[in-house]
Structures are given as C-alpha cells and as structure tokens.
Amino acid sequence: MGGTQKLQKALAQAGLGSRREIEDWIRAGRVTVNGTAARIGARVGASDTVHIDGRPVSPRAEGRTARVLLYHKPEGEIVSRDDPGGRATVFDRLPPVKGGKWLAVGRLDFNTGGLLVLTTSGELANRMMHPRYEMAREYAVRIRGRISPTDMERLTTGIRLKDGDAKLESIAEHGGEGANRWYRVVVHEGRNRIVRRVFETLGITVSRLMRTRFGPVELPPRLTRGNYMELTAGEVRRLLAAVGASQAEEPVHRQDARPVPGRVEGPSRHKRYQSHRRKRTR
Q: What are the helix (H) ranges across the chain?
C-alpha cells in the first residue's frame, strides 16, 4: 500500500471538500478513478486519474500546507455559498484558493457573530467538527437580567430538547450594563442553534451571541467584525498538531510566533497582523 491512501482522505487533504462531502459524492457516483466509478475506501496513488463530475482533479496534497483563515463574522451574513434569498455570505470576499476551496469549520447562524475558522484542509475541518473529537466552542451570550442559581445548574446538568438532551459544559457571568448581562458559556457540540435553544427552553431570550473560541483557536482581540486574517505556516502546523491532523511539508517563508503548545493565538506584533476589510456592495 506504499504511496497510496484512501480516496476520500486524499481528496479532502487536497482541499476539494470535507471527507463527509466526498463520501457522499462517491456514493452518488460523481467520482471516478481511472474511468471507473469509485467506491468508499478505494486507494489512489500518484499514477491514478481522478475525476469529479467529469472534471479532472488532483488528489495529491504533497508539498502543500493547509491554509487557515480566521474571520470575524458579523451578524447578517450566512455561512453558505448559495442562498435563494440573496443574502450576504461570508464567502463573498474571501481570497481565492488555487485548486481548492475554503471550507467553513462549523457554522454560525444568520444572527450569530464571532469566530469562524475556514481552511483548505478537509481533514482539519473534519477533525474540528466531528462529534467524537468534542472540540469546545466558547460563546459570549448577552441576555436581559440575571440567570438564577437554579437555572445555572439546569443549564450545566442537562436540558431536554426535541432532538435529545443538551447541556453547557460551563457558564460564568461576565459583566454587563443596566439590565443586560453577559455570560461566557462553553459547549462541546455543534447542533444547530444549540446555545440559543437551551436558553429559550428556560424562557431566557438571547439578545446577542458571539463565538469567541473553537477548540484551540481563539478570536484575536484586534480582529474586528467583517475582517479576516490568515494564520502563518507555523501557526497552521501547531493547529494541525493540536487536533491530530496530518501535515504536509512546505518551506516556511515568514517568521513565526513563539510556539504555544495546544493553543493557536492571535498575532502579538502589528507587523504580523494583516486584516482585510471586505468591500460592501451597495
């Protein structure tokens, strides 16, 4: 088996989609290897020819390093490339990716802002999103009033929802002004609107919700809404190591920050920081 790897893994590492997406494409007969419909678990090497929907693709990711963007999503954008309603999407102004595409690591709903991680690595996206890896998501939550000790206990011990029980791993008050109070909460799952739903079950309305951390990645303090920054090659390597994803080799052309085991930080020096203001269409 030397020199070959599973088809879905090779295509994901090449940035062509997440492993789940690619497995769905294989089942639907959209992927061929050497002119024959592919099967789940098929192995490919350098001499194999792969097509998706009749278009030739390269599953070879050797020599490439995954790219990772941190985007501060504002409310009012969707995390999707297609929307029948024509709403603004986070993908509108991201930089182009040669031979691949940006994959969103988890989603944020239309009315939720904060940290959105995007990558060209399907393996990295899968590692961060798959339930078995239980990546912690941290949110800043604003509500009106305070949460009672009884409700705090219920939120952390378990709330019954229509699609199963859910709970917050932790919750702590984080200041506020007037009647509005902020809380920091941590969850270990990415079910749709999970934070809003557990609060709503207790009759608590969330007026603002912002993700501040996803796994080992934190929202950089100086990254303002509507801007993004790209991690350096060294930061990407540390992120891949932190989540147990494989790494491709590539010479490092930029000076990297001092390594922080198990954590990816925002940049510490202004010259290392590049944010990009999205152009708004009028």
A: 7-13, 19-27, 122-129, 149-157, 194-201, 233-243
What are the E-state strand segments in the chain? 5-6, 31-33, 36-37, 43-44, 50-52, 55-57, 68-73, 103-105, 113-119, 137-144, 159-161, 164-166, 170-177, 180-187, 206-214, 217-218, 228-230
Q: Which CATH class is domain 68-131+217-251?
A: alpha beta
Q: What is the mean pLDDT of residues 258-273?
A: 37
Q: Cα angle at 267 between 265 and 270, to 5 degrees?
A: 165
The CATH architecture assigned to 136-214 reads 2-Layer Sandwich (3.30)
pTM over 0.85: no
Whether 109 is a known active-site residue: answer yes
Record: fold of 5-57: 3.10.290
In DSSP terms, 105 is beta-bridged to 117
- Phi, psi for 161 (deg, rounded to 5): -115, 170
Q: Residue ranges of the domains in the chain?
A: 5-57, 68-131+217-251, 136-214
Give per-residue pLDDT as tens, 139-165.
999 998 889 999 999 999 999 998 889
How many alpha carbons fall within 13 Å on the CB side of residue 50? 25
Check for a shared fold between 68-131+217-251 and 136-214. yes
pLDDT (0 to 100) of residue 261: 32
The DSSP string of 91-118 is TTTPPP-TTS--EEES---TT-EEEEEE
End-to-end CA distance of the chain: 55
Measure the CA–CA gap between 19 and 246, rounded to whole angstroms: 14
* Residue of 109, 151, 163, 256 marked catalytic: 109
The least confident of 6-15, 75-84, 181-190 is 6-15
